[in-house]
Amino acid sequence: ASFNRIGQTDEAVRAFLTLNEEGARASAAELDKQLAEGGERGLLFGLPAGLKDNMVTEGLLTTCASQFLRNYDPIYDGTAVKKLKAAQSVLIGKLNMDEFAMGGSNENSSFYPTRNPWNTDYVPGGSSGGSAAAVAAGQVYFSLGSDTGGSIRQPAAYCGVVGLKPTYGLVSRFGLVAFASSLDQIGPITKNVEDSAYVLQAIAGYDSMDSTSANVEIPDYASALTGDVKGLRIGVPKEYLGQGVDPKVKEAVLAALKVYESLGATWEEVSLPHTEYAVAAYYILASSEASSNLARFDGVRYGVRADNPDNLIDMYRKSRSQGFGAEVKRRIMLGTYALSSGYYDAYYLKAQKVRTLIKQDFDHVFEKFDLIIGPTAPTPAFRIDEQVGDPLTMYLNDIVTIPVSLAGVPAISVPCGFADGLPIGLQIIGKAFDERTVLRAAHAYE
Ligand code: GLN
């Protein structure tokens, strides 16, 4: 059914980069056989899944939507991938994204842009745009995305599906191609909140292969979905509904808060005063980490090597010049500059200090409130080509997802209405490792 649906829809949506048809059929047959022999059903038994193409998969191309990795055929599965397989999900294929997860529209894919299934003249968001579009188009039952500054939540909002960025460290990053290691997190994109709880259950947990993996006990997530939010205290940051937020988005968020009131929760306006510095700090920190992480792509160890180099240095230069797209180069240069001696204190160190202030903003609000609620993005999806020439405008689409990433706390985006036929997302933010409350509130609203 999944491959039929892909056949019907993917010419228009273009969510997939690589299909795993033979592999999927073989693993489905294997699951049937195990069941016939009396085996138990795993948590995700038989469910067709898609993976963002920055998660390494044994024997299946993993390109990061980059020309540099167009031939990269990994020899191992990342931890989240392994866990999905252990839960008996079936891997349908690899999904399009902005190159190396840098972007918010999928237009930075070096292959082709994915389109929003609600209206194919519009972007699906990014960088996990393929992951969100595939779920919205009914091609897979769920997918995994990665979120560094909004890349699960924002495309989920634009495509009208549910996207969860877990607490930093809850899901192993082993086998996730690194963009900004202090921010990157894998999470589920699903049709509803219950599915999100089950997929999170399957992928969360300590992993000694990831040095920043959190060694915490994993609770049962689905049992949190009681429908009861009575007495929950919600903070609504005034900075998240201010300037630059589309009035229709604001209206949809206020209507959602009314629903919470009717369910017995209370809300109050709060302030996250350093919000205005978050995007600037993020682009220094994420680009700095990216410039270091992407140094491994040298034409020797992974991916494509340029032809006919004059010497070793020329081989690096040509491979990197030909292999990376414009946005990736922009960030490598920005990050290298910010980390250079003489500039480090002024940019990188300063941005780290701002990050701490932003985290403290959240700590203060969470002393009195259980959750923070606002929009996932200031506007619904925009038209393809509308923002490509304007990286700064593009960066501002993440103004309300980036602070959450810098603070490392969990957040989910759930659909909360439409503007001109395009979905709007509600962002529900929780305390670190309190995914249960986030999921409970999202489920009660949905
Ligand atoms: N759009 C943001 C960026 O371009 C976030 C990307 C992400 O979360 N991977 O960096």
From TrEMBL:
<dbReference type="InterPro" id="IPR000120">
    <property type="entry name" value="Amidase"/>
</dbReference>
<feature type="domain" description="Amidase">
    <location>
        <begin position="1"/>
        <end position="439"/>
    </location>
</feature>
<dbReference type="InterPro" id="IPR036928">
    <property type="entry name" value="AS_sf"/>
</dbReference>
<keyword id="KW-0436">Ligase</keyword>
<feature type="active site" description="Charge relay system">
    <location>
        <position position="52"/>
    </location>
</feature>
<feature type="active site" description="Charge relay system">
    <location>
        <position position="127"/>
    </location>
</feature>
<comment type="subunit">
    <text>Heterotrimer of A, B and C subunits.</text>
</comment>
<dbReference type="InterPro" id="IPR023631">
    <property type="entry name" value="Amidase_dom"/>
</dbReference>
<feature type="active site" description="Acyl-ester intermediate">
    <location>
        <position position="151"/>
    </location>
</feature>
<dbReference type="InterPro" id="IPR004412">
    <property type="entry name" value="GatA"/>
</dbReference>
<keyword id="KW-0648">Protein biosynthesis</keyword>
<protein>
    <recommendedName>
        <fullName>Glutamyl-tRNA(Gln) amidotransferase subunit A</fullName>
        <ecNumber>6.3.5.7</ecNumber>
    </recommendedName>
</protein>
<dbReference type="InterPro" id="IPR020556">
    <property type="entry name" value="Amidase_CS"/>
</dbReference>
<comment type="similarity">
    <text>Belongs to the amidase family. GatA subfamily.</text>
</comment>
<keyword id="KW-0067">ATP-binding</keyword>
<comment type="function">
    <text>Allows the formation of correctly charged Gln-tRNA(Gln) through the transamidation of misacylated Glu-tRNA(Gln) in organisms which lack glutaminyl-tRNA synthetase. The reaction takes place in the presence of glutamine and ATP through an activated gamma-phospho-Glu-tRNA(Gln).</text>
</comment>
<keyword id="KW-0547">Nucleotide-binding</keyword>
<dbReference type="Pfam" id="PF01425">
    <property type="entry name" value="Amidase"/>
</dbReference>
